[in-house]
Amino acid sequence: MLRLFTLCLALCFAWPAIAQQADAPIQQILQSHAKIVAKASRKTISPAIDALTQSGLPEAQVVFEKWQAKEMWQSKETGLFVYAEEIDKKTLRIFDFAGGVDLGEVPDKEWKQLKPNSGVRGLIGAALVTFQLKAPDAEVRAGALDAIGRDP
């Protein structure tokens, strides 16, 4: 009973934060390509990847990293995109892409996990190289150069 009360309380605080983040530029890009992001295929995903890459938004790198790692989720009710950690089999801790704000714990039945196939993950990885080449960490930049060398 206490767990249910805690979950309901968390939802009460999380929903205003989710609504507040819906207007964030990164969310607007994701929303404008929501159908192809949610049902990504190697043949259809390029417009969404291009829009994120060309946006110049620092959050785009986080989107690519979380999406490639299958940690990106979409609300079944609102269509908003977040990234999440699984707390247990039925609960997620969700985070907003705009600033990484912790939006709290939510039941996972209200969210759909996005699981891009290997072809889409390859395209996401190629887009990530653009960001990694600009990273302040020399090891990250070296890893990006290695990736280019393996698959130019």
Write the layout of secondary structure elements.
Elements (H helix, E strand, L loop, with lengths): L1 H20 L3 H8 L1 H5 L7 H9 L4 H10 L3 E4 L5 E8 L2 E5 L6 E6 L3 E3 L4 H15 L5 H13 L2
Antiparallel strand pairs: 1-2, 1-5, 2-3, 3-4
Your description of this structure?
This protein is of the alpha+beta class. It has one domain (2-150). Helices cover 53% and strands 17% of the residues. It is built from 7 helices and 5 strands; from the N terminus they run H-H-H-H-H-E-E-E-E-E-H-H. It has a 5-stranded antiparallel sheet. A hairpin with a 5-residue loop joins strand 1 (72-75) and strand 2. The longest helix is centred in the N-terminal third of the chain and has 20 residues, at 2-21. The chain is globular. 26% of the residues are buried.
Structural class: alpha+beta
Distance between the termini: 56 Å
Strand proportion: 15-25%
Largest sheet: 5 strands, antiparallel
State the order of secondary-structure elements, H for helix, E for strand: HHHHHEEEEEHH
- Helicity range: 40-55%
Number of helices: 7
What form results from the Cα inertia axes?
Answer: globular
Please tell me the total number of domains: 1
Using DSSP, what is the number of strands? 5
Q: What strand line-up does the widest sheet have?
A: 4-3-2-1-5
Unreliable spans are none
Radius of gyration: 16 Å
Summed over residues and divided by their number, the pLDDT gives a mean of: 85
